[in-house]
Amino acid sequence: MTTAAIFAEGFKTTPWWWEWAPPTAEGAVPPPKEVEVAIIGSGYGGLSCALELARSGVQAHVLEGESVFGAGASTRNGGGVSPGTNLGKGRAGYGKSSLEQRLGAEHASAMLAEAAESFGHLEELIRREGIDCHYWPTGRFVGAAVPRHYDRLAAAVDKLQKGTNAGVRMLPKDRQHEQIKTDAFHGGMLVDRSGRLHPALLHRGIRDAALRAGATMSVNSKVTSVTRQGSGFVLQTTAGEVRAKEVVATTNGYTGPELGWFRRRLVPVRSYIIATEELPEDQVRALIPNGRTIADTKRVLSYFGQSQDRRRILYGGRASFAGDTPENTAKTLHGMMTEVFPELKSTRITHGWTGYVAFTFDALPHFGQHDGIHYAMGCNGSGVVTMTWLGTQLGRKIARTQNRPSAFDGVAFPTRPFYTGRPWFLPVIGEWYRFRDRMDRWLA
Prior knowledge:
The chain is built from ten helices and 19 strands. The chain is α/β, with parallel strands linked by helices. The chain has a single domain (4-429), classed as FAD/NAD(P)-binding domain (3-Layer(bba) Sandwich), CATH 3.50.50.60. InterPro entries: FAD-dep_OxRdtase (IPR006076), FAD/NAD-bd_sf (IPR036188). One of its GO terms (molecular function) is oxidoreductase activity.
């Protein structure tokens, strides 16, 4: 099959999710001159913060720089949700640099427990607000790319299970066909308390819930500067000046120079996803029998799963570190997908898209306050659950309704010397990761 032949007629470079829930400006109003809390960014974090504040009787307004709400990662991600089993998993993978080493045993335990709690919070939010986002508690399987990765996963299982109670256990290679029809992995780790959902429908549901609660929102209101003035702030936006008592920043992988301190602590990395054409349902079920979300342990990782109607495979990964086009990266992802599922070589792609993931230098999400600005950022690829939770925690903190401090609050937010927020080094690191992945396979 030629590379040109992999594209279905009418191939789109917008997310497959947008076929059902495209971002809109519904509910937008002009930004107010004054507000109690101004929230920068209309992703999961900003909307969840606005919802919690409005439910607590605090006036909150969301400022979105684009012409629609949720044009960023909240409607572009892969739709996988998990209870914190990736927490602190950096370049070294599981088990190399533990949370205990960085934070101490007590703090690490509290953070894992809160990460597990955040998963239940998302489930409760979906139920409470009646959000029809096709939530599907399928569980997760992390495939070991080489045998020693299986050993690394196995070394982390007990701590992950103890910390999250998520049904974490190992599955040897001779049984992996119970979860995925491939010989590309060498066994892997199962996580029962995980799932899939439609991220764009979740975003729309949280937005609508915040509006019902009394929050207000504006589009085309890009914040260009934030200045402290007296006991509050002045925000200059492309739609005019806004004065606020409190400011919340939840821009994550889309953080601009107007929030320079935060930008220097975030590494925006493009992730890419493709959607296959419709396939026979029995074929899709055979490839992933229990519908679990799948990820692997490679440095240049992949993550994938079934669509909720069990008619497509959605396959994502780091197809480029240099910012290539969705068309070119779709070809790369198609090749990565067929390494796992050779029977899909003749399957065409209907959608290929990209969005930014915000990584941090310590592989942890960060939540707190800097120079008076509240923030929640840096989810390292686990933003659906994490940003929804941290946005809610920010709302509770500002409204003074928290029943206890968050374990994520105030953890040192590191940067690197001379880093300005432009990750010029990513192509070099990407090639190094690919070389290391090849070496792992060769040594195996």
